[in-house]
Amino acid sequence: MFRLIMPVFLIVLSTSYLILTFNMDKAQVGNPDAPRYFPMIIGFFLLVMSVIYLVQEWRRRREIIEDVKELSSGRTPKLIGVTIVLILIYTFLFERIGFLYSTILFLGALLFLVNGRKHWLQNIIVAVVFSFLSWYSFAQLLNVSLP
User: Fold this and answer.
1) What is the pLDDT of residues 65-74, one digit of tens each?
2) How confident is the model at residue 108, as a pLDDT?
3) Which of 37, 61, 96, 109 is most deeply buried (CB count within 10 A of its CB)?
4) Which spans of this chain does the record mark as coiled coil (predicted)?
5) Buried-exposed string 106-125: b where 16+ CB fall within 10 A, e elsewhere
6) pLDDT at 124 over 70
7) Could you write out the DSSP letters of every residue in the chain?
8) What contacts 17, CB < 8 A, 6 or more positions away?
């Protein structure tokens, strides 16, 4: 039932948007309704997509219960908990040791958590290369100051 809130909200929003487009001022020159066409197309498209979204979510409402049961069992809760702890450690280390080193440590730990020790070389290479490319892109190419 919770997943139906967003499509209903989008239907209300798109309906309000369409109503407001009809209240727009008419053009003084040329076709008087010309300023309304594009907003009406956007509002109509949003309304149609929101209704499709609502129908899809209504059909999937029983599947969602199974997805939640599957999500709360097995390895997933551990992964979520450890990821939250790693994020907290990352935020603590970010200012102290800088972007590059803290990102390498964070990504390395996260990749080891997800991929395991079997892929240790791949984990290290991805963590180092991604962190360095991110740092280089922001600090050197875009001139963004990173800690």
Assistant:
1) 676 677 777 7
2) 95
3) 109
4) none
5) bbbbbbeeeeeeeeeeebee
6) yes
7) -GGGHHHHHHHHHHHHHHHHHHTSPPPSSS-TTHHHHHHHHHHHHHHHHHHHHHHHHHHTHHHHHHHHHHHTSTTHHHHHHHHHHHHHHHHHHHHHH-HHHHHHHHHHHHHHHHH-GGGHHHHHHHHHHHHHHHHIIIIIIS-----
8) 39, 42, 43, 46
Q: Which two tokens stand for residue 135?
A: 């740092």
Burial class (CB in 10 A: 0-12, 13-18, 19+), 54: middle
Q: What angle do CA 34, 39, 44 make, to 5 degrees?
A: 120
Cβ-based neighbour number of residue 3 at 10 Å? 14
Placement of tokens 């003084």 in the chain: 28
pLDDT of residue 36: 82
> Can you give the pTM of this predicted structure?
0.54
Two structure tokens written together for 128: 């180092």
Q: 140 CB contacts (<8 Å, ≥6 apart)?
A: none
